[in-house]
Amino acid sequence: MKITDFLKQNILYLDGGMGTLLQEAGLAPGELPERWNLTHAAQVRAVHRAYFDAGSHVVSTNTFGANALKFSDAELEAIVKAAVENARAAAAESHATQPKWVALDIGPTGRMLRPYGDLDFEDAVAAFAKTVRLGVRYGVDLIFIETMNDSYETKAALLAAKESCDLPVFVSNAYGADGKLMTGADPAAMVALLEGMGADAVGVNCSLGPAALRGVVEQYLQCASVPVLLKPNAGLPRVTDGKTVYDVTPTVFADEVCDLVRCGVRAVGGCCGTTPAHIAVLRARGASIAPVPIEKKQITCVSSYTHAVVFDKAPVLIGERINPTGKKRFKEALRAGDMDYVRAEGLSQEERGVHVLDVNVGLPEIDEVRMLTDAVCELQAILDLPLQIDTSDPVAMEAALRRYNGKAMINSVNGKQESMDAVFPLAKKYGGLVVALTLDESGIPPRAEERVEIARRILAEAAKHGIDKKDLIFDPLALTVSADPAAAVETLRAVRMIRTELGCHASLGVSNVSFGLPARDAVNSTFFALALGEGLSAAIMNPYSAEMMKTYFAYRVLAAQDENCTDYVAFATAQPQAAAPVQVAASAAAGMEFGSELQHAIGKGLKDRAALLTSSLLQTVAPLTVIQDEIIPALNAVGEGFEKKSVYLPQLLMSAEAAKAAFEQIRSQMQGAAEPSRCAVVIATVRGDIHDIGKNIVKLLLENYGFAVTDLGRDVAPERVVEAVVCTHAPLVGLSALMTTTVPAMEQTVRALRAQAPWCKIMVGGAVLTKEYADAIGADHYAHDAMGAVRYAEQIAKEST
Amino acid sequence: MGVVLVREYATPSVARAEVLRYAGVCGDAPGLDRILDACLVEVADRLHCRVCYCEVPVTRYAALLDLGFLQTCSASLAKNLTGCTRAVAFAATLGLELDRLIARYATLSPTKALLLQAIGAATVEAVCDAFARELAEDAAKMGCVLRPRFSPGYGDLPLETQRAFFALLDPPRRIGLTLNESLLMSPTKSVTALIGIGARD
User: Quick one: which of A67, A148, A331, B28 has the fewest CB in 10 Å?
Assistant: First the structure.
């Protein structure tokens, strides 16, 4: 019988702890338990056998840490082979009569994935895939991914399993006492991610005892449409007479687990500290419990690395601003491969209160596959909002979906067969909520009924791919009302029909409706209000539009979605009052050590004030004069203070930020005007090093001093540095390293640059570096602090002009 | 030798002067109060202070020091552990959220990134201190005192010994702390160290 069929009618009993029992049998601390499959096969078999005898249907092989990062290929194969044989032999030896299955156990790699660690996502996938293929070769019945405390690594393991075999895959995560994974995900986020990718059972193991995991398990039961599994610890360990003792006895353990089986958990066993005795009692006490049927939950949601956003409660706002259409500066940034713009736009939309971010970086002349993937990785590193991946290129879509740490929105599919053939397989494989546009080969039909007809066809085609209607959200397309007076009315009718007749969710890109009209905000926000009234579930919109945000918050109050009007009141009181007049009084300048009000603001690091003063100065003074007479003298004064040690690093940075704010004002006033050409500098933290604060400080200062900085980030391979230097033909590169262990990577980068970009001067810096070190690895200059880097860059700029 | 246990700590408060020192301020620095306050508020509920630890025996064979999980000829560690027959190996971390927060501010406000970094450095020290205080209380009951913390990379103890600490303590599973190939730890605000337990002399 297939285990997934068995689960439909029965409660599945798993095994208990392995590590604790092997330690009792003599496994030394620090010794790798996986090797015991070869060296102590009898002991490993005895543990498996004891679990089968106690009534476990499934035992997991002793392969928790068996992966290609820890073992050579030959040893890995020997270990997995022996591990499967040990479990199989135990199944054959045991006289217990229940059906028996052997699961390939897969634990975490113990390494952190990029960008916060150094393990690349694809390398993690490849490592897991190797173990899975060996498990399949030697005949396991299912894959059991367990004790994962990072959502991203869990995704890598599940992806590897799905790509390498057709066996059932169970996935279990380890939650802390705060009900979250170590890297932040809550149960709803994990269920969304794992179910989306096709896990056959999901659940919880390790960390705590069954009672302490109750809250987490209940959340699983509320969200999951697949069986929920549970393998808790026997409580918490403590030391008595030099031995580890767990505080939950088999009887208490069994009772607590049985309580959760009555709530709906369908597969149960134990983790650290549990023994065959725990399983035997659990099996006996669970015998009388009828399995609770598993219901499809029909939850439409997306998720990030922390949380899920559900579409059934209140309207979901999807920020539309990460899209180069009509944005000159964004296009420039994309062409230069500069991700600062994307990051800043993401952060500021988050601040405005959107729930999901649309990410579109499509420009004809760029490598969209790489750019979209980079944008997704950059955004998910610093933001916890789910992303909507927006591209018409299926290759870019797949690349981005693969790397996305959660269940994404997929923007978009439409009724054209070609589109459905391309997008649905991706949605099936990676999970996702698919935005479906109601257009097809003949275009966008004028009438609502026809658009709904297309929606029906899309639903039917999705079903063929095994995609549920809960994972589709229809966009019946807002057309321009100035071109067709009936456009808005038909779209609104279509929204209602999608909600009521199809029982599906609906989304709109609201802003299209007002093309060509003056005061577009008024039209957009009224259309938004009308669409919300028809049941609109989500809107792709501009969160900087005050009118749109007002409509959103007011609608939620009126639709009884904002208890006690809390959100509305918070929003309304946070609205800026009538702008206070700019005070540029000369009196405030009294007693300053700087030459003018603006210089004082920069010198003291008053960011907002520097911006305000600059914008008012620009009304009467030419931009270049403001730079020459105000900003540069202030920066110089602070820089000299830093060099003389009368100004400290944080103060230097505050001034630099204030100067940057002033420059931004100047830049926005000069838009369109040709900017003076700037000297290019490439900077990076070298491969293997994830510390980048020093590099970021140097970047900020260099930018203020007028350099065009290409920042490659941290953990950067030598080839990428060379590529950027060659591409920008920069006369100077700055490399940073914090640790002695990453200095070799710096040396490698220097060598690669010398070979392929011989014109380029190289300055190096970072905590462990010294002048001697810099000389030894062949750098041109050792920058002992940020100002030192600026001074050297100025010298190189002078020489290269 | 034996059991690896985990302790969690409420975020300890840190002295402002200490934070500023980590941020490179070594004198009077006006104008930093507001931004430092803002940073302190922002990190307050984002830190997850966790320690995992294990007691190990200390045995000497001439120049070789055997700690059960680690054999080393480090003279500086031998000196640090003078008079100790056991020690505690531990790993402490503040969790990944701080790294994310610092990355958020990397381009938004490098000043804040620098101060958050400094807060992290001061806080992880304070967590280690809190842990050591508890050990000291236990040790005192047995008439023992603690030696100063000693980490891989101190003196002549090679940084490579990080691998032995990780093999012993399994910090990825217990506290979400990992070691990368360059022997750097993620989350970055983390410490591994030994604390010798010796007789009062």
Answer: B28
The CA-based diameter of chain B, rounded to the nearest angstrom, is: 56
CA B148 to chain A, closest CA, distance in angstroms equals 23
Q: Per-residue DSSP letters for A433-478?
A: EEEEES-BTTB--SSHHHHHHHHHHHHHHHHHTT--GGGEEEE--P
pLDDT higher than threshold 80 for residue A575: no
Give the strands of the sheet with B64-66, arranged side by side: B59-61, B64-66, B71-72
Point out the residue among A176, A691, A741 whose CB comes nearest to the CB of B183. A741
Read off the pLDDT of each residue in A221-247 and give the average, rounded to a whole number.
90
- Tell me the percentage of chain A whose pLDDT exceeds 90: 84
B-chain residues near A150 (CB < 8 A):
176
- Ranges of H-type helices in A565-673: 566-574, 597-603, 607-617, 623-626, 632-643, 649-669
Tell me, rounded to whole angstroms, the distance of Cα A476 from its chain centroid. 29
What's the pLDDT score for residue A593? 65
Cα B38 from Cα A166, distance rounded (Å)? 52
A740-782 confidence digits (pLDDT tens): 888 899 999 999 999 999 999 999 998 888 999 999 999 999 9
Q: Who among B8, B31, B166 is closest to A605 (CB)?
A: B31
Interface test with B, best of A345, A653, A683 (most B CBs within 10 A): A653
Shortest distance, CA B111 to any CA of chain A (angstroms)? 5
On the question of pLDDT at A393 being above 50, the answer is: yes
Stretch A275-304: mean pLDDT, rounded? 97
pLDDT band at A35 (very low <50, low <70, confident <90, very high): very high
Distance of CA A698 to the CA centre of its chain: 27
- Domain of residue B50 covers 5-199
A3-286 and A314-545 agree in CATH topology:
yes
- Residue from A266, A255, A178, A281 nearest A227 by CA: A266
**B142 vs B86: CA distance, rounded Å:** 13
Q: How many helices (H) and strands (E) does chain B have?
A: 7, 10
Closest C-alpha to A749, from A736, A768, A739, A767: A736
Cβ contact A510:A527 at 8 Å? yes
Residue A576 is predicted with a pLDDT of: 67
Ramachandran angles phi, psi of A270, nearest 5°: -140, 170
Strand A228-231 and strand A267-268: the pairing is parallel
Strands (E), A531-594: 538-541
Average pLDDT of chain A?
93
CA distance A597 to A692: 33
pLDDT at A796: 94
Which residues in chain A have Cβ-Cβ distances shorter than 8 Å to B31? 604-605, 651, 654
Q: Is residue B199 very low, low, confident or very high in pLDDT (cuts 50, 70, 90)?
A: confident
Q: Does B28 touch chain A (CB under 8 A)?
A: no
User: Is domain A314-545 classified as CATH 3.20.20.20?
Assistant: yes
- Residue A245: predicted pLDDT: 85
Mean pLDDT of A685-710: 89
pLDDT tens digits along B101-145: 999 998 789 999 999 999 999 999 999 999 999 999 999 999 999
Q: Which residues pair with A268 in a beta bridge?
A: A13, A230
**Interface touch A653/B111, C-beta < 8 Å:** yes
- By Cβ distance, the residue of A206, A344, A651 closest to B107 is A344
pLDDT at A672: 58
Question: Could you confirm whether domain A586-669 is CATH 1.10.1240.10?
Answer: yes
Find residues 31-90 of chain B whose CB sits inside 8 Å of chain A.
31-32, 35, 48, 54, 68-69
Give the per-residue pLDDT at A577.
58
Fold type of domain A3-286: TIM Barrel (3.20.20)
